[in-house]
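Office hours follow-up: a student asked to see two folded examples consecutively, so here they are.
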Amino acid sequence: MSAVKAPEQLHAGLTQRQISMMGLGGAIGAGLFVGSGQAISIAGPAVLVSYLIAGTVIIVIMAMLAEMVAANPSSGAFSTFAGQAMGRSAGSTLGWLYWVQLVVVIAAEATGAAAITAGWVPAFPQWAWVLSFVVILTGANLLGVRNYGRFEYWFAVIKVAAIIAFLAFGALVLAGVIPTPEPVGFANLAAHGGFAPGGMAGIAAAVLIVIFSFGGTEVVSIAAAESKDPAGNIKRVVKSVMLRILFFYLGSILVIVALVPWNDPAVAEGPFAAALDVMHIPGVGFMMNAVVVVALLSAMNANIYGSSRMLYSLGQRKLAPRAVTHVTGKGVPAKSVISSVSFSFLAVGLNWIWPDAVMPILLNVVGSTIIVIWAFIAVTQLILRRRADRDGAHLPLRLWGFPGLSIATIVLLAAIVAIAMTDPAARTQLLLTGGLTAAIWVISKIALRDESGDSADA
């Protein structure tokens, strides 16, 4: 993992504060505000254990990324590292898999936000909202990385402020400072079937849902390459951000399962709204919808950035057409940005024709990609760290507990996949994602024509 200079064409316009908020904002998305309800309905109050397990995994994954980024800042991040560890085909497969995932998710996030805002202004159709969101956020990304960072910073501030306010009000209600018609405390944690009504199976099943909520944090490993001190920034960000994310997730879920019975149908429909109803805060429905829209647009903004930088890096490594490496005077890989959002413009038309059918199909295909990406990262770190230790290379940042922690993480990810295969819906997603990964790998091998340098650093 020898240090190399980040691509000079990209401007170092992101600050450590912006990267930190990107890390927070990337994880605090619709998966927390909406998806957590499904996990609670499966595991009950024991979903806290599910979040602790998933949170621990992502903390280790981010620490692995930090070790590799500190040694070799790159806009291709984990794709570049996979190429160094396992050859150009591996780097190409991971990079293109990540890019495909993000371009589909960009369209899904625009569609999700539009579905809510269309209800606010019925005269403005859903497809028009999708088009507006895509145009505005594409423009923000084309104006330069500094402007992208500002957009993402304030998006994240709104989300974090909403979480902090929720935690504060929840704590006051639980402590009895804010009165409610019926007394609330922590009785719900043990009532309605006990703390773990679904047993270990329920906890494990909820982990499968929870783990996808943390997807998005890996964008900081890409963003670090466009800051003035990549090694220092990634080190500070990982140490501070990951613990905060765990606190926000565990704190929010604790408030929800303490205030509302876990088997209340309202929890599955909207966990935060259900808890706010207990707090008797007026306008709860509109407030939560507004926060979810912000969360979706924030994730969409970050994914436009992440996908464009990954495509740019693939072009730099001759794994994508060289045209996508063109950089404007503002330091923006404009063709990569346009290429990454082009599918979203296609989604505008698809939303007009089939507004309720397009996204579920596409999301099912990329539903398990985060597991594949994390597995690639863990295996890559294990290989590169062993290589660095063997060669006596200096690493600015080193993962603790190596190699035991790295191996344990790989085993845990394999166990999660094994458990997921027992669930029909999860099994379908895993098989579709596996098929997509295999197809990309085959295409990459054909494109590279099994060249003799396939084992060289990418």
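And the second, which I mentioned at the end of office hours:
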Amino acid sequence: MPVARRVLPRLGPVLAVLALMVCAMFASVPAHAAGVGLDSVAEALKKSPVYVDPRARDQVSEADAEDLAKKIEDAGKPVFVAVLPEAAEFPPRTLMRDLRTQVGITGVYAVHLGDGFNANADSSVMSRNAVGNLTGAVRRSHSGDTEGLLTAFVDQATEQARGKAPAAWSGSEGDEGGGGAAVLFTVGAVAAAGAGGYTLYRRSKKKRERAELDALRVVVDEDITAFGEELDRLDFHPSEPGADDAMRQDYTHALDTYDKAKELMAVAAKPQDVQPVTAALEEGRFALAGLTARRAGIPVPERRAPCFFDPRHGPSAIDAMWAPPGGAARSVPACEADADFLAAGHEPMVRQVRTAYGSQPYWNAGPAYAPWAGGYFGGTGSMLGGLLVGTMLGSVLSTPSAFAGAAPVDSAPGGGEFTGADFNPGDFGGGFEGSGFEGGGDFGDGDW
């Protein structure tokens, strides 16, 4: 007799309904769930570690797929495997990046596409060298044997990967040995989650915001210090010969915004509080530019956005053409020095910030930098979002929730954690050449 039928007569009507809902919720999810398109692949991998497209079942049987999924689940490691046909909906050049983005979970990703194979991983889970060496080894030792190749890869990857399996996988395998106690325990767990889930969420959110603010504080303090040094170098005295009311007004306004930025940063309690700080610095630098022009006897510059490459450079002077690696060219506001660098074919002086993956341009440092950038470039972020189309930060700055908080930028997420699209692009490069994916260890930014 099925477990649920033995237990339900002993439960009240409410518990009976809850038990049926829980049993349905935790029903086994086949590793080869049918679906077309990358969305279907990603949704399946959120529930089970292995996905085999219906059109690729001749390469991996249902039984082999189930065995492979069980092997990964038993190991408890965040290893994802997809077996896909060569099809228009799986563009090989960006497949690894797109799959990681849509699944959104830190881990090791292995894809068999047509007759090619490639694997990438978040560096916090497995090093680039480890992934590249393992990928090359299984290719050479199991050429033409898809099932053998995937099994060999999984055997090694589950031993080397750091972190734990996603919590969503825990319901992928049913356990009939627990009887009524298992059903009652699950119902109790659901009730407990309802009572304490919000508390845990709030606690996690506060911890995340503290980590974000600590990382942002380093960057903002550098900005404030740089502005203070500019004020010192200016060496302006309100009573100096030639000083007029307009100069004194600019100077006073610059000093006021400097003090305001320090005061606002001192009381900042969450990442969003950084936005008015950088807005004050942007206003102060424009006042400083006006004072400099007046002292030199030249026209006061028009109010323009800060230099796109580093707001510490002050207001931009012209619009220059620039393209991010692998992206389309677009016009961006630039200071004279950076515009000259671009015109000469050199890289501009880009603002680098510290991240868990090393020093990165601020637009590759993750959505937690949205409040910092939004203060400089207009608050809503719509302007910067347009400038940064195709970059990590640009994807979130154009949305209303751009400043609602994001993952910490100073600590690498552990394996199995949900990070959405916030991951290091360098970990998921590599493309498709000839008859298969090339270079499991080739993690350049050429695809971005």
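Two things to take away from it. The chain has a mean pLDDT of 77. The radius of gyration is 27 Å.
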